[in-house]
Amino acid sequence: MDRIAIEQLLPHRGPALWLDTVTQLDADSISGETVVGCLPPCGQNGNSHLLYEAAAQLCAVHGASRAGSAKRAYVAKVQQLQIHHHYSANQAVTVRCQLLSQNLAGALYQFSLYQNPQLLLSGNLLVVIEYA
């Protein structure tokens, strides 16, 4: 799935869209990539905690693609956020999200972000799903 297809599922546009591709999607997990071009204004290297936004967008894509009647998905809570390493600007980051549980109100995901194959960031996201 490319940026054009991702835009069909998310309201994010331009530099607010942090995902470049979705590389894998199944019932319980999703993976994608970002080149984190949106982060260099925040500092050449560092600010890895901001990358949770890429994971949040990936979880929203997963939730929207699974629930055909989903209108929007919102991040309600970030839990257990751990920074393992700082990212290097302009290098692709792989984002992986695993669905832990889901009900009519939302879903809980575990996420991890990698860069050449170093673990950068991990944690959990609670996503609230709004239905049409």
Would you kindly provide a brief summary of this structure?
The chain is α+β, with helices and mostly antiparallel strands. The chain is built from two helices and six strands, in the order αββαββββ.
Structural commentary:
The chain contains two helices and six strands. It is of the alpha+beta class and 132 residues long. A six-stranded antiparallel sheet has the order 1-2-4-5-6-3, covered by helices on one side. Strand 5 and strand 6 form a beta hairpin. The radius of gyration is 14 Å and the shape is globular. The mean pLDDT is 84.
Provide the fold topology.
Layout: H1 3-7, E1 21-25, E2 29-34, H2 52-66, E3 70-83, E4 93-102, E5 106-115, E6 118-131
Antiparallel strand pairs: 1-2, 2-4, 3-6, 4-5, 5-6
Count of helical regions? 2
Head-to-tail CA distance between termini: 23 Å
Helix percent band: 10-25%
Structural class: alpha+beta
Over all CA atoms, what is the radius of gyration? 14 Å
Percentage of β-strand residues: 35-45%
Number of strands: 6
Largest sheet: 6 strands, antiparallel
Quick check: average pLDDT?
84
- Overall morphology: globular
Could you list the spans in which at least 5 consecutive residues all have pLDDT below 50? none
Order of helices and strands: HEEHEEEE
Strand order of the largest sheet: 1-2-4-5-6-3
